[in-house]
Amino acid sequence: MKELRKKTGRPLSFDRATALERAMHAFWRHGYETTSVAALTAAMGVTAPSLYAAFGDKQALFLEAMRLYAGDTAAIGAALDQAPSAHAAIGAMLAASARAFTGAATPPGCLLASATASGSPASLPVQQAVTAVRREIGELVRRRIAADIASAALPASTDAQALADLFIGVIQGMSVLARDGVPRERLLALANQALTALPVHHQQSH
Q1: Angle between helices 184-195 and 160-179 (to 10 degrees)
Q2: pTM (2 d.p.)
Q3: Which domains does the chain have, with CATH numbers?
């Protein structure tokens, strides 16, 4: 018993950050509901008790993996604000999404889109968390467009909310296409086409 207590009291015998990244990839590839705890432990290289001890339950693990995937929304907002224009900011965001969804070392598409594709009532908290992240990013985009309207870099008639919804919708659509095997070049072309919906600076004189 003394030896058993010694073993169970030991610190984590695995790298938590690496395990979390592996869990993120499992959720990204298979979705939240269809990724079992057994599949997670196999992907992470840990036992179920270690998973629960380090991360809590499956839902808590997913929420932490989602935060790792989505990054710091404050940093996203800062990047949007620091870009020379809404056009440049959103162009960079769309291009980055196209590249992220077609990475050689990561599953295709977007974790936020794939994780909750088949939502049941049991996964409602996860769906709500994903929705909240999407809404937050959408609001950052809307705010960046609104800033250009306020500074007269965009026409006063520009609909910031509709454009923000369009670009978030385009990102989600690119995720679906990436999962269908559409190559990066086509997603980048799609991103450039979508960007034409945003008036450019020289059009404000009309």
Answers
A1: 170
A2: 0.84
A3: 16-67 (1.10.10.60), 71-199 (1.10.357.10)
